[in-house]
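To the team - D-glutamic acid complex, inputs and output below.
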Amino acid sequence: MKTLLSTQPGPIGVFDSGYGGLTILGKIRELLPAYDYVYLGDNARTPYGSRSFEVVYEFTRQAVTRLFELGCHLVILACNTASAKALRSIQMNDLPRLDPRRRVLGVIRPTVECIGGLTVSRHVGVLATAGTVRSESYPLEVHKLFPDITIYGQACPMWVPLVENDEAGGDGADYFVRKYIGQLLQKDDRIDTVILGCTHYPLLLPKIRQFMPPRVRIVAQGGLVARSLADYLRRHPEMDARCTRGGTCTYLTTEAEEKFTESASIFLNTAVQVSHVSLE
Ligand code: DGL
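Output:
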């Protein structure tokens, strides 16, 4: 059945499987504070990192459809796993059917675009969820733009649970941060640039810096995605005109509201008002 979507301008939608996308939203709002935003976290079904292509696609499609129904004309998938496994299918299969004038953008392309200018050795690592690594999205995108770069993926399955359980600063995190960095650098000691290819990982940045050799540059995505969005809105005035500017941000979660408020404060350093939303 075709959904009836409003043609009125609306907020920019920001979607993540859980809380990680708040790191991206924070940077976007820093750079583009005038716009209105709706953040949707599928906290009830997180993590996506270990789920199959079909499931991540279905969950992400439901979330994007809901954000469109809420008036968004532009949705950012602030989740690497959803960007890796669902973005292309949504752009190809769902947008033409839902509304060909709406847009869904991911976080992988804006990250990859900057990599060519950062690495000197042309050997790059990506730390990400198992799903993102398995999808090979980073190597595929990097090779399209920079065929001379060799790229290695390392899955870090324990990092999201550490962050979600507010253990990113705890002693227990040391073991897993050191472990995955060691496994990545063992693949090639010429790696001079490492992408944090999961929106949760900036929360582990102090520990990642502690255990990463100083010669390695660490690339977090928030600022890159924010700059890329600003550039996109500049290049697409027709989309810019469909994004309202009231400086507000609405938070939605598929989990219990109290739980989101409690955990979101880890990411935002401030309490937020959130409403429950059901996606199925
Ligand atoms: N936010 C997700 C990402 O950037 C990771 C969390 C999850 O596994 O759902 O990949």
